[in-house]
Amino acid sequence: MRRFSSPFTHRRLALTPLAAAACWLCVSLSAQAQSANDEASTLPSVGVSASAKRQAKASIAGLGDGPAWQQPVQAQTFSEEMLKDAQVTRLADLTKLDASVSDGYNTVGYIDTLTVRGFTLDNAYNYRREGLPISAETRIGLDNKSGLEVFKGTSGIQAGVSSPGGMVNLLVKRPEGRTRTATFSLDSSGSVLGAVDIGDRFGEQRQWGVRVNAAIERLNSPVDASEGHRRLAAIAVDHVLKPGQILEAELEHSYTSQPSIPGFSMLGSVLPSASAIDPGINLNNQPWTQASQFRGTTGSVRLKSDWGQGWRSTISYGAQYLKSNDRAAFPSGCDAEGVYDRYCADGTFDVYDFRSDDESRTTRALLAQLEGKVETGPVKHDVGVSFLRSVHFSDLHMASFNYPPVGTGNITGNFPDLPADPSLQYPNTDRHERSSEVTLRDAMQWGDWRAWVGLRHSQIRRQAIRADYSFVTPVLHKTANTPWAALGYTIAPQTQAYVSWGEGIELMYAPRKTANAGAPLPLFKSRQTEIGVKGQTQGEHGVHNWSLAAFRISKPEGATTPTDVYVMDGRSQHLGLEASWQGRQGPWAWASSVMLLDAKRKDSMYAANLAPTNVPDRLIKLSGAYTFKGPLALTAQADIVHEGRRWVDVANTTRTPAWTRTDLSLRATQGWQGQTITWRLAVQNLFDKRAWREAPNSFDHIYLLPLQARTVSASAQIDF
Prior knowledge:
Blueprint: H1 17-35, E1 54-55, E2 74-79, H2 80-85, E3 101-103, E4 114-116, E5 119-120, E6 127-129, E7 132-133, E8 145-152, H3 156-159, E9 166-172, E10 179-187, E11 192-202, E12 208-219, E13 228-242, E14 245-258, E15 292-308, E16 311-331, E17 348-376, E18 379-395, E19 398-399, E20 407-410, E21 426-427, E22 429-446, E23 449-466, E24 476-492, E25 495-506, E26 524-539, E27 542-560, E28 566-585, E29 588-602, E30 618-628, E31 633-643, E32 646-647, E33 655-656, E34 659-672, E35 675-684, E36 692-694, E37 697-698, E38 701-702, E39 705-706, E40 711-719
Parallel strand pairs: 6-9
Antiparallel strand pairs: 1-2, 2-8, 3-4, 4-5, 6-7, 8-9, 10-11, 10-40, 11-12, 12-13, 13-14, 14-15, 15-16, 16-17, 17-18, 17-20, 18-22, 19-21, 22-23, 23-24, 24-25, 25-26, 26-27, 27-28, 28-29, 29-30, 30-31, 31-34, 32-33, 34-35, 35-40, 36-39, 37-38
């Protein structure tokens, strides 16, 4: 069948007049900054400094390098070392580190989906890699990542298009001098990992740098028949062109293959007991079951220049190419009882042969940024201008997800083999999107006062094409402005109170099983107001960072009309209170965070004005570590994760109970023949707690995902 040729396909990254003007402005200001510094004999050199394991700020916020307590946002940066100590091996594991982050739909063998402040992050728009847009509709390896950033709240000024919960940014390992690390790990489920991290600098002035990461892993889990494998290879290089100017490039390729594990569900109107169901049961276990596969190649090139006198610029280009095969013997609904969002009352369910093979997704982005410092009388300004040009294409083809189902199963997992139905009758929807965005910002300071203002102007073109060509929408052209502003006052030494307000936009499409499935919906804005106070104390009692923030987020929502058309209808309102405290004193280190959330649906004509599903009303994340004195550096760490009740159904008749999980870990570091060996031993879900971890309403269905059974893991990291 001939593929439809989109008018976007051949235009690549051609510049609009607005884009050209923005680029000219960046170049012009760069030249002026360089000219102002011509009298300087040397330019500052490019260097690398080590960062703390955990910081209450993130570069993706775009607010500069000031201390965390001065930034009027809530954010966190987690270093590679901290991720290893906390046994974070995939993006879904971020849910144990911060109370604002919880599960969206996270199961073995599938992509990671997160919620922040109660809103599900859009995997196509809310993820960045080194500040460049990427798609997280894949499995992302962390072996070559130096850290992860989480930004909380509406991100219209940071990203333009994004859901209002927040953003996740992945930081890539760069050359930092001599690096020689080998890691070997295994766990009680049978997973085995081997990885290397090697880097160095070369040349007479060490102007060349290279870093290589490689990993191979046999995947397994406590769930039956969940064996898989993955691999990753990555390289990062840089060249210091002259003092203050560095050219960087990096490339990674990853592949993951593992069966995905479907969830359980409501049994009629009854919530089954998590204690009575074995979390190791695999409902996706048929002779014809195939692994879901995710392949990705991602790279970027970046030129960083320090022009002196506080001026610097960055020009980056990144590209990502994803391929995936999404497959499952998929349990969904109960045709026998005429209900399709849950299982039958007796524990049986319909089984579908779902196959969506050869899915392709392409993302490309060009980002130019210029930042500098200006003084106007008593006011100091930290100004910035940026231009972002990005494109995203998805090509998903026809899929197998056919009615009637191939048979029935039951929640015991003991049901007969069913026939396959791989016929391609279900049409996916392709999306072609392109945006040009210009951002201006100014951070001002005078005395104890600070103010921030910013504006992002976005020009967006998009088109939807159903795989069977039952519709091809015209190219839609839209523009949107997303402002952001904040005001802060230093109320005590290293303590600031602030208030902020901002907007964001989303690209929304009608969901499946509606008359206009896949059709683009109008642009609507989300809005956030936040009030907070942040502080830092440092002295003989150690270093402490703390924050308290209250927020209100309003987001447009959609609903299906009686004529089965999906339209914008009403809004969601999330009112929340966040608190965090992290610090170190002597041998002790700790981190704690709490979020209380009141989420409601409002002003809808076609949907119930109730609380959203799968959003916990409270979250508490606690972590404490103690380092023992002695010839062997030994650190013991405990992590406690508590999540409150979640509504299971849209009618708000059933809630999952709250649950608490405890993880323990030990880290020991020793020297051996001139090398350093770091041993790690961890137990996840120490008390083998049985609970429904989350209750996502995905694919028009209620699913119940259990806590993973107790798992023991051990690793050895050798630095040589």
